[in-house]
Task: structure prediction
Amino acid sequence: MTWQLFILISVFSTSLKGILFRVLMRKKDSDPRAQTIVFLSISGIFALVIALIKGFQFPALTLLPNFIIMIFLLTLAPLLVFRALQLIGASEVAIFLSPQWLWVVLGSFLFLGEEATIFKLLGTIIILSGVLLISWRQQRFKIRKGELFVLLAGLLYGLSYLNGFYILQSLDAFSFAVYACLLPALALIIIQPKTLKRLKFYTLPRNAVNVLTTASLDTIATISLYLAYQIGRNASQISPLSATPVMFTVILSAIFLKERENLFKKIIGSAIIITGIILVMR
Result:
């Protein structure tokens, strides 16, 4: 399979995952910390099953600093996203998360030794313009608390992907997905053990099905992204393509979740982001 096909699988899975996130976080008894633990644990178990079938691999000790960084980034970033989903719509979360791929593109030039081109840089600026357009309300620029949470999460995710791509140069994608899910979940349980008391909400049949489906989609999306990088070794191209779920999430949120506020701006902003991605791919 080619890296383009793996990215297509990742994009489709991510789009569906974003909608299910919003459905869960709309409920008053949901909790960002508890959901992070449940979500990461289930995703990690799914990834572990696949890794054991494929052949589980242990990392070299020289990668220990990178794994410590990974735990910090992937523990904090999901918490910020889940909290934001309680404050703003799924389509806005998807759009404001898109800068994470800009950080990866820029970081790939600086840290992964990939070639920088004028098209990639111009595409980066255009993508940022699309993100800014979405945040424009009532004739003035305004960023609310929910957007700030997502923007910070995007930065942390971007750094985590750069760190992850470095690790993937010497560790297989399936094994790395296990570490990237289970280690942050374990760290969160150790830091905030009282969160375990709130897990009962996710044992209710409908919620359990939702979170299981979401976790499986995330596992597919994550492993597909990692495999795409291991095949293509081109983070500066793979990362912008990973922002394309924005358009699908905006449309699906409008249809299924009735999130139609500023829909025209969201669609225009998404179109601008896609235009930037086309330039980045040149």
Summary: The chain has one domain: 3-280. The chain has a mean pLDDT of 84.
